[in-house]
UniProtKB/TrEMBL annotation:
Protein encoded by which gene: amrA
Highest taxon of source: Bacteria
Chain ranges of the AMMECR1 domain: 294-466
Name of this chain's protein: AmmeMemoRadiSam system protein A
Pfam families attached to this UniProt entry: AMMECR1, LigB
Record-linked Gene3D superfamilies: Hypothetical protein ph0010, domain 1, Hypothetical protein ph0010, domain 2, LigB-like
Biological source species: Caldicellulosiruptor naganoensis
InterPro entries reported in the protein's UniProt record: AMMECR1, AMMECR1_dom_sf, AMMECR1_domain, AMMECR1_N, AmmeMemoSam_A, Xdiol_dOase_suB
């Protein structure tokens, strides 16, 4: 088995870049070398994992069209089209194996495609790598898939399944993890700058250069989230295809001329591994969560135990644990409870003003609400409980603001009001760096037109427990 990490900015394609692609010459040279390698390897099936195919929260998109195609028309380039035969036997085997492993595959029917505008055509995450591959080699079937927002273990298992399904058909396979690295490398880039951007890219590239891709699973999920990358999960799926084998990784190029990191890397199978990476991922995850649990304060512990009790008994915690402090029993305040899973938000619900007789009961109610009543997410299930991490924010009483000069998005949260419409935004949120950004988001949540409507502003502070 061979695998590659390939970037996918459309600007790399000369017909689209029209000279701008020359700013990525190292990437172009590396892609040509990879295409030569692939032509020599002669894969019968190429799997491409694209972040820009349909991405579901809890299911892996798998393209089941008999023929998969796409073009460069959306970039104003006509006459360049791609058509690939899909291997439906492998697709069916992937779906069956996923079901056996408790994973879900999501297909997109013609009806859903028409109704919701979800396309099964090749997206740019697939088109850009395939443009360069097919310059040198075209004799292959294509499996078009994506990752989903599930945890590392499930991403890894999906990679294992992709390989098993290809090998079951006796095919020579190759997997492409399509993805760019951080989108926040420079202030003049399209996504702005975050210090975590260069840090994430540097760490990932160093690990690949040292042929230590297994250590990618030790990267803090919050670092990758703040770096705003789109390729990390693709890599994690790819690595699953090497389970039980040692891996040699090689970086062909890395650069970020447009404020986005482009890395071209290869993964080669090198004999049997001395241990299972899957078992190592599971062990490290358990150790990380155990450490988090051991360092929980009373606020976090109460939020966690409240939700766990509700999930298992379908009723609110009916007693106040003895570790709850006097302050939590005596004082009243608005409380927000946030739940994360593998660095991704899993639910967040809160109250601006206290609705219960004390902070402890406010936490109990809002922890359950975050797990069950956040309309953006499905209800938390019992098998997820061990992987959830909690934040608790205790809000100060809001105070009216007479001038935007009294606001600071790092220090103060905001509440905007217009009649019965109201929107709230907590302070110190990733990507919210200016007062204007903060107010616009709060107004959008309230249904207030920031540009044309007058509205009242209040500010508050939070006492954050995490």
């Amino acid at each position: 088995m061979v695998g590659y990490l390939l970037p996918h900015p459309p600007v790399l394609i000369p017909e689209i870049g029209r000279g701008e692609e020359k700013k990525c010459q190292a990437t172009l040279d590396a892609l040509e070398k990879i295409a030569d390698e692939i032509a020599e390897y002669k894969p019968e099936v190429i799997v491409i994992i694209s972040p820009h195919a349909p991405v579901f929260t809890d299911a892996f998109f798998l393209n089941d069209k008999p023929e998969i195609g796409g073009s460069l028309a959306r970039w104003g380039v006509y006459g360049i089209e791609f058509r690939f035969k899909n291997n439906l036997e492998i697709v069916q085997d992937i779906a069956k194996m996923c079901s056996q492993e408790g994973l879900t595959v999501g297909f997109v029917s013609d009806k859903i495609q028409k109704r919701y505008g979800v396309s099964r055509d090749l997206d740019h995450g697939a088109l850009v790598p395939l443009y360069f591959i097919t310059k040198k080699y075209k004799d292959f079937e294509l499996i078009h898939t994506s990752y989903c927002m599930l945890d590392d273990i499930k991403l890894y298992k999906y990679g294992m399944i992709l390989r098993r399904a290809i090998e079951k058909q006796g095919k020579r396979g190759l997997i492409v993890a399509s993805g760019d690295l951080s989108h926040k490398l420079s202030y003049d880039g399209p996504y702005g700058f975050a210090k975590e951007g260069p840090d994430f890219d540097r760490l990932l590239v160093e690990l690949l250069q040292s042929s230590n891709p297994h250590a990618l699973y030790d990267i803090d999920p919050e670092l990758s989230e703040k770096a705003a990358e789109c390729g990390f999960r693709s890599i994690k799926v790819l690595l699953g295809s090497f389970e039980s084998y040692s891996i040699e990784s090689k970086v062909y190029s890395y650069e970020g001329p447009f404020g986005v990191g482009y890395c071209v890397a290869a993964f080669y199978q090198k004999g049997e591994a001395s241990s299972s990476l899957l078992e190592e991922i599971v062990r490290k995850r358990e150790e990380r969560l155990k450490k988090i649990r051991e360092n929980e304060d009373e606020y976090i512990r109460l939020a966690r135990e409240s939700l766990e009790y509700y999930v298992k008994h379908r009723r609110y915690l009916d007693h106040i644990p003895d570790y709850v402090t006097e302050r939590m029993l005596r004082e009243r305040a608005g409380v927000f409870v946030s739940i994360k899973k593998d660095g991704n938000l899993r639910g967040c619900i809160g109250t601006i003003f206290p609705t219960q007789e004390n902070i402890a009961k406010e936490i109990i109610r809002n922890a359950v609400a975050a797990g069950f009543h956040d309309p953006r997410f499905e209800e938390v299930t019992e098998d997820e409980l061990d992987s959830l991490v909690y934040d608790v924010d205790i809000l100060s009483p809001p105070e009216k603001v007479n001038s935007k000069d009294q606001l600071d998005p790092k220090k103060y949260g905001v509440i905007v009001r217009k009649g019965t419409r109201q929107g709230l935004l907590l302070p110190d949120l990733e990507g919210v760096d200016t007062v204007e950004e903060q107010l616009k988001i709060a107004c959008r949540k309230a249904g207030i037109d920031y540009e044309s409507e007058d509205f009242e502003i209040e500010r508050f502070t939070v006492e954050r427990h995490k």
